[in-house]
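Allow me, if you will, to draw on your knowledge of protein folds for a short while. The matter concerns a single protein, recorded as an amino acid sequence and a row of backbone structure tokens. Could you please explain, in whatever detail you think fit, how the structure tokens follow from the sequence? I remain grateful for any guidance, and I place the record below:

…
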Amino acid sequence: MEDETSRTPNVSGSAPLTESLDSTPEVEQHSVTVKRKAIEPRSAAWPHYDKLIEDEINKAKCKHCGKVLLADATKNRTSGLNKHLKTCHKNPNKVNTSNSKYKQSNLNFPLEGEMGDGAIWTFDQEVLRSL
């Protein structure tokens, strides 16, 4: 009587083959760990930061002002780094928003007795009808 599994001779130098009762061959695999090549950072924010690892937490330090921000690849990503670049006061590459149409303009009030562009006036219907 035959065993439940029978071994075939290893002729080609490969892993030994085993056959079970359902006669499907199984190959014994040897696990080999291969390290992946490090991926270059693709975000435009990284040239403005130095990478740090503190207490096993990935962080980034701003080259302009020295502020340390979280920069974990799976949690924080680079959105916080990009937001900081827009508001960093020492960033020489920051877009100047002083001429932006969304910025609040200055109000100039005339001094007492002067009439200017921002002068206070009263509405008079009779004066308008006479024009």
Notes: The first strand starts at residue 6 and ends at 7.
